[in-house]
Amino acid sequence: MPVHNSDVARIFGEIADLLEIEGANEFRVRAYRDAAQTVTTLSSNIADMVERGEDLTELPGIGEELAAKIHEIVNTGGLKQLEEIRRRTPPELVNMLDIPGMGPKRVQALYKKADITTIDELQEAAQAQRVRDIEGFGPKTEQSILEVLERERRKDARTLLNIADDFVGPLIEHLRAIEGVERVVAAGSYRRRKETVGDLDILATGTHRQRIIDRFVGYEDVGEIISQGETKSSVVLRTGLQVDLRVVSEESAGAALLYFTGSKAHNIHLRNMALEQDLKINEYGVFRDKERLLGETEEEIYGLLDLSYIEPELREDRGEIEAAQAHELPYLITLEDLRGDLQMHTTASDGHNTLREMAAAASDRGYDYIAITDHSPRVAVARGLDADALAKRIDEIQALDEELEELRILTGIEVDILEDGELDLPDDVLAKLDLVVFSVHSNFGLSADKQTERILRAMDNPYVHILAHPTGRKIDTREPYPLDLERLMRAALDRGCYFELNAYPNRLDLDDVQCRMAKEIGLKVAISTDAHRVSELRYLRYGVDQARRGWLEPEDVLNTRPWQELRELLDR
Ligand code: DGT
Ligand code: CA
Ligand code: CA
Ligand code: ZN
To answer: 335-570 in CATH: which number?
Structure first.
């Protein structure tokens, strides 16, 4: 196993943490931290330097002793000294240092006086009011430990993007309503349109920082103020969602936006690239030596690095920086590119609005076409349509289609794939429909092989068009069923059928990586809402967000086509 710079840094960091807990001399602790920092920011591989016999003591903060330790780590993959310290002081104590307000002295006291070594043990002890009697603690500290732990636990919970959207709009309005505010934007994973967000990161620019912060903590939905400083503040909304605000100056707005949009991996990659050009990037701007070059917009920062502008949805360090360097970034799809919606339900099965209501709403949204895809009989909870009911339905849809000149309404079904891969309606019925969406709603527990075979068999039916919610996952409640997705995508390409990117916010199935897989295979996807009521037609945008994260361009998506082209593509 080759030793990376980060391995060396991690070992030095852990030594520093453990020595600190033991109460070692602060200069000694700092020496290890500085060494970790030096190794982290080094542009060359330390293992290679050792191999080439380079003199490590020329690096900042590395003396003879630390150089010898680096040699030991590179040559053996570990460090005897760390093992010795770990024998004296339980290494899991280090985790407690991550708790806000918990310094090394306190961690040491918890260990020495109460034998508490883990966060769980700490919580238990605090709940049992055993922490207050430890020297250096008290009832107040004990209470605040419990609150902090509760908050940390909540932090792990993530919020669906559409829910986050409901909070962001009104909060930004609230901040903009005072004088002296110039710009307010939400950065972080929210701006990258990730399917869930851990917390919200709001950036504001303006003249009266204090006033903006005061306005922020005074927002009516704030349940708890975690911190309130001169340029930043964190609160938890009543719903449990944490929001971080930073107020920055107009001249560094672009640098701050870039930094706080992330992702962290994207930032680190950019920063390392900049270092190779002797440039330093941080949240205040781009610097050469001590001179600040620029930082007002993201565009000029990417430009200075000779990169095309990178859309936030792509910033995950998945090749976008290399593509920007070659000026070969995808031309990402937008909501305006879509001409219709190819999956929705009505009161004929489990929808809440009638055919006419859904059609009128789609027409208002300016669509050229929609497909009505109610369930087939097997999906009993959804009161699916049998052959007779469907025949009647086709007549109703065609009548309404003639009535509404602006909108084309496709007759369709979401036909259930039975356990053996047969479909839930006979071929002669399916043959009458404009669009057949097919999907799995049962037997999620089959092995990957069996599930893949099952869907392949369904795909062999010449009347199906689009495989809906292909992996069956529901974010937070249901794992995707085991599946050979790549094989299925290639099979769909061979057979002239397609995959859905289900835009429903708790499905978003395909995910971003799978969208990109489809693109690389050459398989087109349909972005469809699966709306069960009029108000859900707007979910199309979440499908577009995910598609953008998956590098999709208009031509990769089925329903960017005008109807005539779409009809040809559906013709198997
Ligand atoms: P989340 O909140 O878990 O959905 O994900 P993010 O990406 O919003 O992450 P968050 O809220 O922890 O931080 C917001 C941004 O700040 C992140 O995307 C990049 C930047 N950032 C945070 N920590 C670091 C760091 O240690 N290094 C760098 N380079 N950037 C960081
Ligand atoms: Ca965040
Ligand atoms: Ca944050
Ligand atoms: Zn379905």
So the answer is: 3.20.20.140
Ligand number, closest to the Cα atom of 158: 1
**Residue among 194, 234, 267 to mutate when testing ligand 1 (max atoms within 8 A of CB):** 267
User: Over the chain, what is the mean pLDDT?
Assistant: 94
Q: What is the CATH number of domain 159-248?
A: 3.30.460.10
Is the CB of 338 inside a 6 Å radius of any atom of ligand 1? no
Calpha distance 28→64 (Å, rounded): 14
Report the nearest atom of ligand 1 relative to the CA of 261: 18
Ligand 1 atom with minimal separation from the 196 CA:
4
Give, using CA atoms, the residue closest to atom 18 of ligand 1. Answer: 262
Which CATH code of 3.50.50.60, 3.40.50.300, 3.30.210.10, 3.40.980.20 fits the domain covering 253-325? 3.30.210.10
Instruction: Check pocket membership of 254 for ligand 1, CB cut-off 6 A.
Output: no
Question: What is the reported pLDDT for 207?
Answer: 85
Q: Which residue's CA is minimally distant from atom 15 of ligand 1?
A: 260
User: 531 pairs with which residues across the strands?
Assistant: 344
Give the chain's residues under pLDDT 70. 1, 155
Residue whose CA lies nearest to ligand 1 atom number 3 = 198
* Nearest protein Cα to ligand 1, atom 22: 264
Q: Give pLDDT, residue 42.
A: 86
Beta bridge partners of 414: 375, 437
Angle at 75 between CA 74 and CA 78, to 5 degrees: 70
The per-residue pLDDT for range 112-170, each reduced to its tens digit, is 999 999 999 999 999 999 999 998 899 999 998 998 888 777 767 899 999 999 999 99
CATH 1.10.760.10 fits 5-154, yes or no: no
Nearest CA to ligand 1 atom 9: 188
pLDDT attached to residue 2 = 78
Name all contacts of 281-286 with Cβ < 8 Å and 24+ positions apart.
281/255, 282/255, 283/248, 283/252, 283/255, 283/256, 283/258, 283/259, 284/252, 284/255, 284/256, 285/251, 285/252, 285/255, 286/255
